[in-house]
Amino acid sequence: MNGSLTEARLLVAVEHLSGLDPDLARIAATLGPPPLWAREPGFPTLVLIILEQQVSLASARAAFDRLRLAASPLTPASLLSLDDETLRAIGFSRQKARYCRLLAQALLEGELDLEELARQDDNTARTELLKRKGIGAWTTDIYLLMCLCRPDIWPVGDLALQVAVQEIKQLPTRPTPVEMEAIGAPWRPWRAVAARLLWHYYLNGRN
After folding, report:
1. C-alpha to C-alpha distance for 25 and 201, rounded to whole angstroms
2. pLDDT digits (tens, 9 = 90+) for 24-45
3. Distance CA 155, CA 169 (A)
4. Distance of CA 121 to the CA centre of its chain
5. Helix (H) or strand (E) holding 53
6. Residue 206 has pLDDT above 80, yes or no
């Protein structure tokens, strides 16, 4: 499907998904449509998503806010100007500091172009991001889904989505990424909207 997700298209997709799946329909009826949760594309947000890997969103945001104070404005060059000790004090693990430095270097050296990425199809953009050390499937999916607002991205490795799917589908165990692929297949070409509905449920509708 071509085009980015907008508020208007989100509502159309929620109606479509509600007609397909009674569990998604129940979320929409109970909680209303989910937020678009759009993020500004670019280097700062990609750094934030790397910080969010395997930690709470609150702790990642706190580290990111400290980073923006230390490197203002936050650019590849300003991040590279900070030494390891400063990044550790901000809240970076050694690994994440390395990932963000490699990302900054790739952007400065022209190995990665985030503006060009926005013009590429999902598979090409995903392949380009996955070339970068420290940017795996989850980080790539969240960037494409939230920053580029692609309508059919389905982050099968996202823990909150797995928990939400397990609960609304009344599964005995949390679904694996392979099982998540199969569960999400009927929701094409609006899987990114299904993901938003499930996050909406996870954050507001459980129990």
Report:
1. 11
2. 999 999 999 999 999 999 999 9
3. 17
4. 17
5. none
6. no
Dist CA 104 CA 77 (whole Å): 7
pLDDT tens track for 51-62: 999 888 899 999
Could you give the CA distance from residue 170 to residue 68 in angstroms, rounded to a whole number?
A: 42
Q: What is the pLDDT of residue 188?
A: 98
Is the separation of the CB atoms in 57 and 114 below 8 Å? no
* Contacting residues for 47 by C-beta, under 8 A, at least 6 apart: 64, 67, 74, 79, 100, 103
Closest by Cα among 167, 161, 204 to 181: 161
Residue 145 has pLDDT above 80, yes or no: yes
pLDDT of residue 2: 59
H/E segment holding residue 75: none
- Which long-range contacts does 152-159 make (Cβ < 8 Å, 24+ apart)? 152/1, 152/122, 152/188, 152/189, 152/190, 152/191, 152/192, 153/122, 153/191, 153/192, 153/195, 154/180, 154/181, 154/184, 154/187, 154/191, 154/192, 154/194, 154/195, 155/195, 156/180, 156/181, 156/184, 158/195
Least Cα distance to 195 among 168, 148, 156, 169 occurs for 156
Q: Distance (Å, rounded) from C-alpha 47 to C-alpha 60?
A: 10
> pLDDT value at position 207?
64
Query: Can you tell me the distance from the alpha carbon of 22 to that of 176, in angstroms, rounded to the nearest whole number?
Result: 22
* Segment (H or E) for 101: helix 94-108
Average of per-residue pLDDT values in the chain: 96
